[in-house]
Amino acid sequence: MADMIQLANVSATYGRIEALSDVSLRVPEQSIVALLGANGAGKSTTLNVICGIVPPTKGDIVFLGRSIRRLGSDKIVGLGISQVPEGREIFRDMSVHENLVIGAHLRTDADVERDIEVMTTYFPILAKRFRQMAGTLSGGEQQMLLIARALMARPKLLLLDEPSLGLSPLLVQQIFDIIVRLHREEKLTLLIVEQNAAVALAVSDYAYILENGEIVVEGRSADLAHDDKVRSAYLGA
After folding, report:
1. Which of 50, 150, 209, 227 is 20–30 Å from 36 (CA)?
2. Predicted TM-score (pTM) above 0.90
3. In sequence order, what are the residues at sequence separation of 6 or more whose Cβ sits closer than 8 angstroms to the Cβ of residue 199?
4. Does residue 158 carry a pLDDT above 90?
């Protein structure tokens, strides 16, 4: 299967600190790829480099055969990449409906309200909270809103940054069940940054493990999940 996106020897810095060093990875079309590692390993930086938030100092990023290394964030979103950032950055003083509309702000078609209805089939709780201020939602509901808002841009590639952060095990399972359903039914390609390695490996096809800005292990998720050395060294098992 062709690659949706490929990073080739990408490096990035914050001031004098090298955050990524020669990172190479690929996300095939209609796959789920996990990016794992401890805090500070460079996982979020990788997503920010893809989105044009952090400029790479070296290497290339190729999306659907086109280099996007020098493009701005808006143009990258327009090409079909959406990110769900860590930290639940919703518009707290706007309603659930208004947040969803903002997710489609780059679109020019007339199907925005239809797509909002589609989002409520995947996230039924949002339909019940439609006119509620987003800041009054629970943590799990806010995470669902963030994912739905990102999907309103009709992305080809969805980047998820720590979707399980701060959620109960039950909510984590619910969110990942929805992610798998979106992947299956909408043919969505996903790159997931996640500290909950067990959950991420269970839903993904392939995984990379970052350590100090470098990829130290990669392989089929099912293989990594059952590799005792990998589990002990990198996954806290």
Report:
1. 150
2. yes
3. 164, 172, 173, 176
4. yes
